[in-house]
Amino acid sequence: MSLAWAFWTYYFLGMRMLKRQIAVQTTFGDYTLTETLGEGGAGRVYGGVDESGNAIALKLLINVTTDKRRRFRNETAFLAKNTHRNIVSVIDYGMGTDAHLKGPFYVMHRYTSSLRERMSPSVNPAQIVALFSQMLDGVEAAHMLGQRIET
User: Residue span of the signal peptide, if any (predicted)?
Assistant: First the structure.
């Protein structure tokens, strides 16, 4: 499991099923979204499956501004060219034009647990150090790629 994904999903709690599934099609794949995994200030994350039944997560840019679009474009470009095992990778992206999914989005593999679950009180402190070490490896890899992390 990518720890960057786990760290990212740590903030997204409260999954809920969609009232109706959302079908998404790109040049490279077909996806069916079935639940909302969470929402932040700039994005909403959906869960679903690809045409082979593999679990995916789709991040949609919401409340679009010029600055948010620029940051989202940088995030997508970085994650698309990333190959480090501790940083989530974009497997597809596109522009939603449906009323239920409007705006730029990217698709990534979905993992079965979050950092919150991995860091439960029953985890040995030595394992916590190992998890953070993996996250720092991912941060180091991002810096080695020359990417600026924008806040």
Answer: none
Per-residue burial over 62-92, b = 16 or more CB atoms within 10 Å of its CB, e = otherwise: beeeeebeeebeebbebbeebebebbbbbbb
Question: For position 1, what pLDDT does the model report?
Answer: 44
- Confidence (pTM): 0.79
Would you state the pLDDT for residue 10? 42
Q: What is the dihedral of CA 130, 149, 89, 47, to 10 degrees?
A: 90
> Mean pLDDT lowest for which of 31-45, 62-76, 97-111, 126-140?
126-140
**Which domains does the chain carry?**
3-144 (3.30.200.20)
| Counts of helices then strands in the chain (DSSP H, E) | 4, 6
